[in-house]
Amino acid sequence: MLKEFQEFISKGNVIDLAVGIIIGGAFTLIVNSLVGDIVMPVVGTIFGGFDFSNYFLPLSSKVTATTLAEAKKQGAVFAYGNFITVLINFLILAFIIFLMVKGVNTLRRRLVAEKAAQPTPPAPEIVLLTEIRDLLSKK
Question: Of the candidates 36, 32, 35, 82, which has an alpha carbon nearest to the alpha carbon of residue 72?
């Protein structure tokens, strides 16, 4: 079992997956900043200058706060503004990942086309036999 685990860990796929997760976590922070600091203020301005993350509907008569954080302390709330922010965050992230995958696929297709266009060199045995034939034909 230990040997199988070592084989599993030593495969490149596990390392690639770990690197992908780490980069994904860092990339998520960038996208969260893009949405929270750049996109949502513009969207909020378009919709009346309010911060989307504080849009909520109180589900209890005890909730009288004007910010989501305070309202959650007072009781149950339907935080649709926070959901909209997360949804926009997801759409931006999905679009960026789509563009990255599209770029990689285009690059792969180009490399495959270039490789297919290059003639395959003959096997060393064929080259050697051709040279021997040419030498014999000269005698």
Answer: 82
Q: Are 54 and 67 in contact (CB under 8 A)?
A: yes
- Compute the distance between CA of residue 139 and CA of residue 123 in angstroms, rounded to an integer: 25
Q: How far apart are the first and last CA of the chain?
A: 66
Q: What is the dihedral angle through the alpha carbons of 34, 36, 42, 46, rounded to the nearest 10 degrees?
A: 140
Cα dist from 109 to 57, 89, 104, 114, 115, whole Å:
50, 30, 9, 9, 10
Distance separating alpha carbons of residues 118 and 39, to the nearest angstrom: 47
pTM score over 0.70: no
Give the DSSP letter of residue 65: -
Phi, psi for 47 (deg, rounded to 5):
-95, 30
Residues with pLDDT less than 50, the chain: none
Tokens 């378009």 correspond to 46
**pLDDT (0 to 100) of residue 17:** 80
Cα–Cα distance between 78 and 117 in angstroms, integer? 60
The C-alpha atoms of residue 9 and residue 84 are separated, in whole angstroms, by 40
Residue showing tokens 């949502």: 40
